[in-house]
Amino acid sequence: MAKFLASLLFCSLTCSSAWSADPDWWRTAVIYEIYPRSFADTNNDGIGDLNGITEHLDYLKDLGVDGIWITPFYPSPQVDFGYDISDYKAIDPQYGTMADFDRLVAEANKRGIKIINDMVMNHTSDLHPWFIESKSSRKNPKADWYIWQNGDAKGHPPNNWQSIFGHSAWQWSEPRKQYYYHAFYREQPDLNFRNPAVRKAMYDIIRFWLDKGVAGFRLDAVPSLFEDPQLKDNPYFDGTDAYGERNVARAYTDNLPEVHDVLRELRRVTNEYPGSVLIGETYLPNAIELAKMYGKNRDELHLPMDMQVGFINKLSVPDFRQKLLEAETELNGNTPLFAFDNHDNIRAVDRYGDGAHNAEIQRLLATILLTPKSAALLYYGEELGMVTNTPTKVEDVRDPIGRIGWPREKGRDGERTPMQWNNDTNAGFGGTGTPWLPVGENYKTVNAATESKDPDSLLNYYKKLIKLRKENEQLREGDFILANDASTRVLSYLRVTKNGHAVVVALNFTATPQVANIDLASRGVKGRHAKTLIESFSGVDTVDLGHIALAPFGAYVGQVEP
Ligand code: GLC
Ligand code: CA
Predict the structure, then answer these.
(1) pTM of the model
(2) Residues near 29 by Cβ (< 8 Å), separated by ≥ 6?
(3) For 103-135, how does the pLDDT look when each residue is reduced to its tens digit (9 = 90+)?
(4) 3-state DSSP call for residue 50?
(5) Which residues are identified as catalytic?
């Protein structure tokens, strides 16, 4: 508690907004994901670094983000570009020094921006000293820190478990004459979370970074923490995966109930640091499973990611109605965290775009991300309209899954290309040499410098939306209510506060003009007209709610006039 008061005092002196002192700041937050390798390079080695983030904090402040989640920058052999950690309490020299990190936190805090670290608990690098010790013999102090098993009677892997990144999840280790389990690459052995010493080691790491002033963690691969101790085979289903293996459902390797014990323990650790947040990477099958991640007594994750809404992957009004409604009503009053983009998936514009109206569709998606009652995650470059730059030749692929799975799985390089800052050399990413991945072809026009000068750019659309979301009481606090409109062409909803004031959102999901008819009375709201707050196409200052004319893929946000 003393720590919290100290940070409040610190904040009242240095933070730019009083709002920052709110311990529940994350409920309405806009969080910006940075893949540090690809954000900005300040020492001309083709790899982004922490100083590159610090240099661009004013851009992020101007965009209006409340926090940045930085994917792993700890020492790592970089097999999975940082998700294979070999030291949890240091900085990889590729990305800078601890002094650089401290400066980043201080400079971000000055601007009212919080830093969220990525925390990979499920596995370490195979070059982490824990694993080196663990694999050295069957009897050493860390012998039980990972998931070790004998082979079957014929010496084959113990069961049919598959790695998410292709082929058997079991890797033979000669010194122990045993297999170890890896949910991801074989260079990422899974830790044994049934071992209390492992849990304690992780919680110590969490405290180390919280003591350094980070505001929380994005927890990697949450559902993967536990596996069935009886090693039951996973069930098969039809077809093969990208790696040519029979498909398996991850029934005995993912989302086991024990995960929740760890999440509750973690929450208790972060409770020692009021105002800190736990975000979870929670790919789950539905809202019911997602709801569990908050804990019955709100004692697990503050913000497990909702991957249902952002990854519908087609502009279907019924699907969006259903998924948005579930997120807003089935999470026991908890806040959903929506995301359309991240470093593991083809960029949203390439999943939702039709090729002909991508600019309009990007604005439509931005509006869905930022106007429901939710926290929002943005991925670097999403606000500019960066697209996926998938490699065309296997020789160019850097992400190992793209080589293992080529051509069905081309890896994740496409969504990790350098941030497009301006139309100079390397799009202003830094340096004159070759960046670790090629710059996207559209950088001459799709870049921060050009777009910030254009009032109609996507960047300025995001800025306006984020500002509005902060300033408008209905968008901040109002309940989310689907509008009573059965149309399958227009998605519409309201944000209504207790005083009856409402904001209306109407989104045309088609390539032709549509007219939305919003019936407020059936939703207990008074009013016939709305004053335009934001729209993605040029239109009018006020609209008749029975008759909102929407351009193809147009987005409209208006304040209902009571
Ligand atoms: C998560 C990360 C992904 C990584 C994997 C293994 O899914 O987002 O990038 O490869 O975990 O750590
Ligand atoms: Ca660099």
Answers:
(1) 0.96
(2) 66, 67, 375, 376
(3) 999 999 999 999 999 999 999 999 999 999 999
(4) helix
(5) 220, 272
